[in-house]
């Protein structure tokens, strides 16, 4: 029997390796879901996990469970609570899907080791569940069951990636900002000029998505295990969305992947440095925020200049009260009365449209283009190979990942704009500073990917983390599959 947990670096079955399975939670195409576990056993809205201390305590590299929890070294990939209300309806359509919880341990070399997977189904009553726990194994039936459990986790993660991390948290939530900008900001307004390149082609690509991808009977319904309830699930999770938590530092703090540290430029310090999305992302975030701050201070000299900018106030009112009107009365919205609130809003918006979207979109072909690595699992109640989707669904899924991973031929990348976009010399100097900062980040990313001590940068699959490589130093038009760079906007 093959050892499912060990793969050599050039092995073509690296996707079966436990380290690669865990690494992709930090450096794959959905690196924003994993979080540090706050209490054991994990608790859901209606039930407590069936995972017991005895399931994991002998696999903590010599630590007790209490020590591991106190040191923030146990993590969870949680696809349980939000899925459970939908599982029965999903399975009524001939699918056998489970909600999942995966616990992982942070080792001394900053790699994650899977500890246990819990797969759950709804019980006979509304508030009960039926769960089974799977432990790592390398031989016999245990190994096959462990691989089976991992497949369900990646199927859950694939659906969450497409419906929430990708569609909802980038494409969908940006739309009200674009519409309000077109309606409330004149083309001469400085904030309109700042944001304009970050809205390129987004409304057009979203319209295409509604006709082909997320529509009833569309590609996502045909390929994801969530089927016809896909957009209902996405809409349900919109209820949890908060714009201020999409700021990268706030997101990392919420997931306990970072700690507050005023000494760091971003105000936070990663819990461990070998988190590729977090490490590269914080530098990109800070470069964007510095540029936005520099830009805004040219046009806004004090807080009153923001407070009494009628166009900005109308813009923000439409976003809050109309665009995201069902959340208008939530207390987390900025008041938009200070320069710092304007800067944080614009930084977050540019981050979502550029770097966040790049991190969840352009790696799809590399990771999801090989179905065993990111299975869609239309019928996962059979042995692993047999439970992959049919040839049509699989071909459709692969084609989709290839199309979505391509850069357009006229793409404009972060830190790159036509020279005639402004005649303000101070703004041009600040923008050059932004461009220079991004080029320095590029060098750091190359160095990190070459550092053998940073094991999460490449992993057993030997795929270096480049999803947040700015591509600023080579800003000529380029496109196609495998192109590098962070596009300014959600253009695909």
Automatic annotation (TrEMBL):
Gene3D superfamilies: 3.10.450.60, Lipoxygenase-1, Domain 5. Its EC number is 1.13.11.-. It comes from the Eukaryota. Pathway: Lipid metabolism; oxylipin biosynthesis. Its cofactor is Fe cation. Residues 1-492 form the Lipoxygenase domain. SUPFAM superfamilies: Lipoxigenase. InterPro entries: LipOase, LipOase_C, LipOase_C_sf, LipOase_CS, LipOase_Fe_BS, LipOase_plant. One of its GO terms (biological process) is oxylipin biosynthetic process. One of its GO terms (molecular function) is oxidoreductase activity, acting on single donors with incorporation of molecular oxygen, incorporation of two atoms of oxygen. Plant lipoxygenase may be involved in a number of diverse aspects of plant physiology including growth and development, pest resistance, and senescence or responses to wounding. Belongs to the lipoxygenase family. This is Lipoxygenase. It comes from Linum tenue.
